[in-house]
Structure formats: C-alpha cells, structure tokens
Design brief:
With 71 residues, the chain is mostly helical. The chain is built from one helix and two strands. The protein has a two-stranded antiparallel ribbon. A hairpin with a 2-residue loop joins strand 1 and strand 2. It starts with a strand and ends in a 14-residue tail after the last helix.
C-alpha cells in the first residue's frame, strides 16, 4: 500500500510510467537530503575557517581603517 496526498493505493496496480515517476521522485528526495547534509557540513567548515581567519587577523596590521571608524 502506498499513500499519496492522503489517499491509499495498491502500487502493484500502477502502470510502468507511474511507478517510474514515483521511483524518480524518491531518488530526487534522497538526493535533496544528501545535498542539504552537505550544505550543513559546508556551513560548519566555513564558520570554523572564519574563526581561524579572525584570530589570525588580530595579529595583522591593517593598511587603513574603514571610513567613519575613528577607533
């Protein structure tokens, strides 16, 4: 049994084309979840590298201060 939009179906009765589309949709959903996971990993790494960069920049001397910042 397969439920789509709140309606139950016997997927054994589906035609080949419908079965193929359901399979393709499932594959796309899996790929989306994998990509979202990769984005989360990238966000963590970017934050990590940002902290490293900020820490190392504290040791550097800027060429000039940004306009309007007199501190």
């Amino acid at each position: 049994m397969l439920t789509i939009n709140g309606v139950n179906y016997d997927e054994k009765e589906f035609g080949v084309e419908l079965k193929n589309y359901i399979t393709l949709r499932a594959e796309v959903q899996v790929n989306k979840a994998r990509h979202m996971s990769e984005i989360e990993k990238a966000d963590v790494l970017i934050a990590h590298y940002n902290k490293k960069i900020e820490k190392l920049l504290e040791k550097e001397t800027p060429l000039e201060t940004p306009a309007g910042n007199n501190s």
